[in-house]
Amino acid sequence: MKQNIETRYAASPREVKQMDTQGLRDEFLVEDLFTEDNVKLVYSHYDRYVIGGVSPVNKAISLETIDQLKSSYFLERRELGVINVGEAGSVSVDGQVYELGHKEALYIGKGNKEIIFSSKSSSNPALFYINSTPAHKTYPTKKIGLDDVEVVELGTPETSNARTIRKYIVNSVVDVCQLQMGMTTLKSGSVWNTMPAHVHDRRMEVYFYLDVPQDQAVSHFMGEPTETRHVWMANHQAIISPPWSIHSGAGTSSYTFIWGMAGENLDYGDMDVCAINELR
Ligand SMILES: O=C(O)C(=O)C[C@H](O)C(=O)CO
Ligand SMILES: [Zn+2]
């Protein structure tokens, strides 16, 4: 089994200002997360965040360590969040099997050696979106189903930003060292996520777009609030947001995205909100 691995370095606002379309895409966009019977991993130097996709179709896939970690197994010094964006599947964690249905999540604590991903049916495979961060302590592995999440409603139809935020891996739901993950779904007719936009210099963030119809797209906005850039994104693509950058998007239809964060604190509400009419 191949693990397709990329490294992304951290870039400063000064460098990013000079980037053209392809430069921005090469630096921040994560494509091809799901290829049959493969693992794709992107190791980012922002908070040493790992973004990945695991797509077991005809066989089970084990998560192996990568050179970037210099560890004997992947979770030797890390924790892992998994959200299944495909059909039914399971994750075996040192022999304990967790069944994950569509949009169910699993938090896996540091120190677990053998992580094996499987689909229930090769004709309707699971798609496991994964995020991983360095961890200093072992917390118990926990499945987070749709009934376990914290739900927040934000926005209004009048401002085209009515959406539901589901917090899966946050410290009020599961004990974590630094990883946070959740899912935001736009209501029909609304297109703007994370508007008003914000930054949080204490945490980097990654957005992974899903439920984007094949002939539609999301224009994702990034950059300093007064120096924004956009990146056009398709279904099942992710984008890295540096801590100094806004992360917001407008779709040509409604859609869903998974956000994941790591850094200085676990305070979801620690955001510096940008006035909409001051964005440039
Ligand atoms: O639509 C939103 O607003 C979000 O989903 C915001 C993210 O959760 C986020 O950026 C958290 O920092
Ligand atoms: Zn944010």
TrEMBL record:
Zn(2+) binds at H198, H200, E205, H247. Pathway: Glycan metabolism; pectin degradation; 2-dehydro-3-deoxy-D-gluconate from pectin: step 4/5. Keywords: Isomerase, Metal-binding, Zinc. GO terms for molecular function: 4-deoxy-L-threo-5-hexosulose-uronate ketol-isomerase activity; zinc ion binding. Its cofactor is Zn(2+). The keyword Metal-binding applies. It comes from the Bacteria. One of its GO terms (biological process) is D-glucuronate catabolic process. The keyword Zinc applies. Binds 1 zinc ion per subunit. Its EC number is 5.3.1.17. Coiled coil: none annotated. It catalyses: 5-dehydro-4-deoxy-D-glucuronate = 3-deoxy-D-glycero-2,5-hexodiulosonate. Belongs to the KduI family. HAMAP family: KduI (MF_00687). Catalyzes the isomerization of 5-dehydro-4-deoxy-D-glucuronate to 3-deoxy-D-glycero-2,5-hexodiulosonate. NCBIfam families: PRK00924.1. This is 4-deoxy-L-threo-5-hexosulose-uronate ketol-isomerase. The gene is kduI.
